[in-house]
Amino acid sequence: MIPYGSLVVFVTPKGRRYIKRLEEGQDWHGNDGVLRAAEAAASRYGDVLYTNTGVPMQVQEATLHDRLKGLKRQTQIIYPKDIAYICLRLGAGPGRTIIEAGCGSGGLTTGLSWFCGPTGRVVSHEAREEFLALARRNLQWAGVGENVELHHRDIAEGFAVSGADALFLDVRTPWEYLDQALAAVRPGATFGFLLPTVDQVGKLLLGLERGPFGDTEVCEILMRRWKPLADRLRPEDRMIAHTGFLIFCRQQDRNADFLALRPLGTRERKQEAARRARLEEDNAEE
């Protein structure tokens, strides 16, 4: 039995996927006919049901991946492949407090809420009220959000909480908010950023090297599916390639003795010399 109120996925023989909330008395109507809500509620996940026109439909449980793909969008949302890695790098989980800024349509917010669970806390900030309203509706639709606080707030004024375990910025100029970010987290916290262009990543890295940040990583995640044919296994013709740059680092005080013992090659020594020259120039200007 599938309880009413559950999010279910109906899959057609042609591979079309429809994610719907199962409500009593509300039958599903599609191009392939009508699927009775009572029949779906009496079935189990994995069963095959038939519409009134005799078309078979598979019934599946809506996973987090399904829910993320079903969100209503007014903004470019973060892809599931990126959300998964972001949640891992930020350590999203029970008892953790994660700050987010730039929630947009609420894609990452949904993932963070899912992973943090009842004992975790997600504190999200959005400057545009219409996006905040959409994120709230999406969280409710996806069946999460009880552990989420949504704030209509300009983060230039600071974040709504302090002492958080991790912080993620999905804003255009994150280097302008590093001081506010540091004030919002506990020592040693993890930071994450999403940026679309190389130029923006460069500006962020310059900002990070001027502050107490370390363990920096810049990456992109590419996803290539393979055709699941045992005797003709080969990659799909298309893939989900570059969707954005992900940058992660930690709050980390710099220590001269620690830095002096790092093994550096010729290229790394030149890069370190250039970094110090930039810092000296910044200090001279101040």
UniProtKB/TrEMBL annotation:
UniProt binding sites for S-adenosyl-L-methionine: S105, G106, G107, L108, E126, D154, D170
Enzymatic reactions: adenosine(58) in tRNA + S-adenosyl-L-methionine = N(1)-methyladenosine(58) in tRNA + S-adenosyl-L-homocysteine + H(+)
Entry-linked PROSITE patterns: SAM_TRM61 (PS51620)
Keywords per UniProt: Methyltransferase, S-adenosyl-L-methionine, Transferase, tRNA processing
GO BP term, example: tRNA methylation
Ranges where the tRNA (adenine(58)-N(1))-methyltransferase catalytic subunit TRM61 C-terminal domain occurs: 71-233
Residue intervals passing through the bilayer: none
E.C. number: 2.1.1.220
GO MF term list: tRNA (adenine(58)-N1)-methyltransferase activity
Recorded GO CC terms: tRNA (m1A) methyltransferase complex
PANTHER family the UniProt entry points to: TRNA (ADENINE(58)-N(1))-METHYLTRANSFERASE, TRNA (ADENINE(58)-N(1))-METHYLTRANSFERASE, MITOCHONDRIAL
Protein task: Catalyzes the S-adenosyl-L-methionine-dependent formation of N(1)-methyladenine at position 58 (m1A58) in tRNA.
UniProt subunit comment: Homotetramer composed of a dimer of dimers.
Family: Belongs to the class I-like SAM-binding methyltransferase superfamily. TRM61 family.
Name recorded for this polypeptide: tRNA (adenine(58)-N(1))-methyltransferase TrmI
